[in-house]
Amino acid sequence: TPIQNDLKEFYALV
Amino acid sequence: MFEARLTQSAILKKVLDAVKDLLSEATFECSDSGIQVQAMDNAHVSLVSLNLRSDGFDKYRCDRNLSMGMSISCMSKILRCAGAEDTVTLRAWDSPESIVFIFESPNKDKLAEYEMKLINMDQEHLGIPETSYSCVVKMPSAEFTRICRDLSQFGESITFACTKEGIKFSASGDYGSANIKLAQTADADNEEEAIIVNMQEPVKLTFSCRYLNCFVKAGPLCNQVQLSMSDDVPLVCEYKIGDIGHIRYYLAPKIDD
């Protein structure tokens, strides 16, 4: 089963 | 002072309908240029980015920048009190502890005011760079809604596969599998019904149905939806809000374990 990524893996907190 | 008036409260009602399943609360950033909201769902899987330009309002005044934390469920309840034809005005004073929603009937014989307390919120703001995507697909929003609903019956996620010919949506699970192919429309005479694929590289990505089915709640805002995709990056699902702005949903893809 595919696992769900977290958005914070892609975009940095500013 | 902050004051923003929309002749059609229906637009704001639809905006709230489009975010209330994903967000329980959000910070509304108000400035001279308009109102912006950026908020992630609790699981950090999706993000809502809402932009309402000041020039799209019938009246707009914002003397100083304001960050107002609002309960989305409370705001949604208040907007349900507006008549479909009512004008809505949002009003707050500088350093506000509350915001007032004013609904006025078309013949001005009924004026209703609802005051909502603001909430203090810790906000996590993500920096989303301007990106050029491998595939950008425009399609009727009602079709996208239907595809997400139909394929959700087969599995927890939907795979989007885009080539220059069109886009294929597929899902599989215990009951079986399903796939729906949409070809790019040859003529763009009817813009509302058009399916337009702009492809640099083919893309294949898998997304959770649960979130897609939240995004499609924005369907009543716009006849077309735009899906921007690149391999291994979040999907951007965008609906225009008339001439006033847009709502964008970002959704992290699923990856094979």
Your description of this structure?
The complex is a heterodimer of chains A (about 15) and B (about 260). With about 15 residues, chain A is mainly beta. Chain A has no helices and two strands. Chain A has strands at about 1-5, 10-14. Chain A is rod-shaped, with a radius of gyration of 10 Å. The mean pLDDT of chain A is about 90. Chain B starts with a strand and ends with a strand. Chain B is built from four helices and 20 strands. Chain B is mostly beta strands. In chain B, the strands form three sheets. In chain B, strands 6-2-3-4-19-18-17-11-15 form a nine-stranded antiparallel β-sheet. Helices cover about 15% and strands about 45% of the residues of chain B. In chain B, helix 1 packs antiparallel against helix 2 (about 70-80). The model of chain B has no long low-confidence stretch (mean pLDDT about 95). Chains A and B meet through strand 1 and strand 2 of A and strand 10 and strand 20 of B.
Describe the secondary structure blueprint for this structure:
The complex is a heterodimer of chains A (14) and B (257).
Chain A: E1 2-4, E2 12-13
Chain B: E1 2-6, H1 9-19, E2 25-31, E3 34-40, E4 46-53, E5 59-62, E6 66-71, H2 72-80, E7 87-92, E8 98-104, E9 111-117, E10 126-127, E11 135-140, H3 141-151, E12 157-162, E13 166-173, E14 176-183, E15 196-199, E16 203-208, H4 209-215, E17 224-229, E18 235-241, E19 245-251, E20 254-256
Antiparallel strand pairs in B: 1-5, 1-7, 2-3, 2-6, 3-4, 4-19, 7-8, 8-9, 11-15, 11-17, 12-13, 12-16, 13-14, 17-18, 18-19
Helix pairs in contact in B: 1-2
